Amino acid sequence: MTTAAADRIPTTIVLRYGIGQVGAQVFRDTPAVLLPLFLTTMLGVEPWIAGVVVLIPKLWLIVCDPLVGGWSDRMKARLGRTPFLIGGALGTAAGFVSLFTISAYPSPFMAAVVTCLLFFLAATAFSVYSVPYLAIAAELSRDTHERNRIMVWRMVFATFGVLLGVGAAQPLVQHFGGGAQGWRVMSWVLGAVCLITMLITAQSLRKTPLIPSDQPPGNLRAQIAQVRQNRPFMILLATSFISNVGQASSYTALGFVFLYVVKAIWLIPLFILAMSSMAILSQPLWLWLPRRIGKPRSYMLASAIWALVTVTWLWVSPLSDAVVQLPWGLPVLRDHILVMVRALVFGFVNGGFIMLALSMMTDTVDYQRRHIGVASEGVFAGLYSAFEKLAFAVGPVIAGVVLSAFGFISSTGVEVPQSASAINGIVLLYSVIPAAMQAIALLVFSRYTLPEG
């Protein structure tokens, strides 16, 4: 995987690259959405402690991801990036299963400590896979629109990962009886998805040519110093971090919203299915629009729409009028329909601005390659990945603090009624907080420019 890559990438290579994102997305999203719920409702851990359990392993990734990126850059000429992908896939799948398999602990504190350790190991394994995986996207083509095509297909597969990891995870728990058994079976099913899809990418890209660097990479300190001088990348990094913190807060609250606010847990798979389907259907637009108005303007349009629609969750009510009665006896309320409308809009724009941020990241790497000769793709990917993972650790901490501050009551194995204050905290986490973070991110991004040539 070390000879120059052609500008036009065969579709088979794009698909083989993209499928690994299914498993990567499952590991990225399922713990972010369900691990706080598992800790608070199954293991009796306080919400703020659950947030810390997620935070500590991801703080480590601030160091781990760049280390993995620099290591894979130095190994690229001799071994390529495949060994990292294979080892990371095996460790990620095993780590995912371990997170939800154990439910019998002597105390909630011990549950928090052990889960934190398991998540630390699993997150490290995922770093070994995800950093080289992201670096490869910048090494497959020198053409900006081809790299956008790579990211479009990667986003399609990511959407399937969301559908499985968020949409199917909680229904799987319920289908297999709930409680410890339900969580255990869910972990085995989705762990298998992680293993199979990530290994397909690892094995099938072994002989795929990647763009070589004109100069050998230096030590990690020198590589990071070069990356820090890349102003477009640093602005994009800050933008994505702020945006991801807001999204992570809302992801953490997803299960709580449908359980305690919408009071229709059965809507989650339909919500995720609608959002995922629209994300897939919208990808041709995000392939075409950047050619017309550019990636930055396309990104700003998509993220602004997302923020505006996110605010509307303030007006969700479980007491609206019934519109129709489903055959199995469940009433469909007016607000249920509005929830599904939001899902369609979210799917339309969410896949757009997430994909475009990654696509612009590869542009900043290419800019570095053309002007310096050594791109340090792994270090770029490592820093970007580290700050993404940190954001998805900070988000649950924010969620835990807000839930605790608003009086959310933890439990062990059963759902307990929540106060009006706790419900308000859940709503804020899914509306005002992520929308405000997205607005701040757009202000930072307004300074993004990528010099031509």
Description:
The protein has 453 residues and is mainly α. It has a single domain, classed as Up-down Bundle (Growth Hormone, Chain: A), CATH 1.20.1250. The protein has 15 helices and 2 strands. Strands 1-2 form a two-stranded antiparallel sheet. The longest helix is centred in the last third of the chain and has 39 residues, at 334-372.
> Structural class from helices and strands?
mainly alpha
* End-to-end distance: 27 Å
**Tally of extended strands?**
2
What is the rounded Rg? Answer: 21 Å
Please trace the helix and strand order, writing H or E for each element.
Answer: HHHHHHHHHHHEEHHHH
The biggest sheet, with number of strands, parallel, antiparallel or mixed sense and barrel status, is:
2 strands, antiparallel
- Given the structure, what is the number of helices? 15
Low-confidence stretches: 1-6
Percentage of residues assigned to helices: over 70%
Classified in CATH, the superfamily is MFS general substrate transporter like domains
Remind me, CATH topology? Growth Hormone, Chain: A
Spatial sequence of strands, sheet with the most strands? 1-2
Shape: globular
Name the average pLDDT: 87
Label the CATH architecture. Up-down Bundle
